[in-house]
Amino acid sequence: MTERTFSIIKPDATRRNLTGKINAVIEDAGLRIVAQRRVKLTTDQAKTFYAVHAERPFYGELVEQMTAEPVVVQVLEGENAVARYREVMGATNPEQAAEGTIRKQFALSIGENSVHGSDSLENAKIEIEQFFTEDQIVG
Ligand code: RTP
Ligand code: MG
C-alpha cells in the first residue's frame, strides 16, 4: 500500500551538511520526498513532538538537541513507507544499526542519531499535520 511517513533530518546531521547525502539514501531506497522544509524548532514544538518521551531521563537532552540547530522536516511517500523508512534509518542506537542504514553511516550516538521517522501510520498522520498542510504535499 502506498503510504506517507514523516521524517526529520536532525541537527547533528544538518550541522555536518549531510542533508543531501541522507536524501540520496532515502531516494535510493525508493521513497519519494513529496514535501520538505528547513526549520528551527522552538522548544515548545520539540516538547510537543516528543511528548511521549516526557517522563524518560533523556527528554531534556533530546529537546535541547532538537532545538540546537535547524532541522529538515519531510514527508516521504512510497510502498509501505512507514516500515520502509524505519528500515532505511536503522536501529535507534547506531552501534546496533545494520550496514547501509542512515544511522549506521551518519549517526554520532543514540541521542544524536541523524534522523527521525514515524513509528506507525497513525503517528505519521499526526506528525505530518504538525508541520504541513495538505496543499504543501505534492505527490
Ligand atoms: P525517533 O523517534 O527519533 O525516530 O527515534 P526512535 O523511534 O528510533 O527512538 P525513540 O525510542 O522514539 O527515541 C526518540 C529519540 O530519543 C533519543 N534517545 N536518546 N539517550 C538515550 O538513551 C536515548 N534514547 C533515545 C534519540 O534521539 C531517539 O531517536
Ligand atoms: Mg520514535
UniProtKB/TrEMBL annotation:
The active site is at residue 116. Residues 2-139 form the Nucleoside diphosphate kinase-like domain. Its EC number is 2.7.4.6. It catalyses: a 2'-deoxyribonucleoside 5'-diphosphate + ATP = a 2'-deoxyribonucleoside 5'-triphosphate + ADP; a ribonucleoside 5'-diphosphate + ATP = a ribonucleoside 5'-triphosphate + ADP. InterPro entries: NDK-like_dom (IPR034907), NDK-like_dom_sf (IPR036850), Nucleoside_diP_kinase (IPR001564), Nucleoside_diP_kinase_AS (IPR023005). Its cofactor is Mg(2+). PROSITE patterns: NDPK, NDPK_LIKE. The keyword Nucleotide-binding applies. It is an enzyme of class 2 (transferase). ATP binds at residues 10, 58, 86, 92, 103, 113. Keywords: ATP-binding, Cytoplasm, Kinase, Magnesium, Metal-binding, Nucleotide metabolism, Nucleotide-binding, Phosphoprotein, Transferase. It is found in: Cytoplasm. Pfam families: NDK. GO terms for molecular function: nucleoside diphosphate kinase activity. Homotetramer. Belongs to the NDK family. Major role in the synthesis of nucleoside triphosphates other than ATP. The ATP gamma phosphate is transferred to the NDP beta phosphate via a ping-pong mechanism, using a phosphorylated active-site intermediate. PANTHER family: NUCLEOSIDE DIPHOSPHATE KINASE, NUCLEOSIDE DIPHOSPHATE KINASE DDB_G0292928-RELATED. This is Nucleoside diphosphate kinase. The lineage of its organism: Bacteria, Pseudomonadati, Pseudomonadota, Alphaproteobacteria, Caulobacterales.
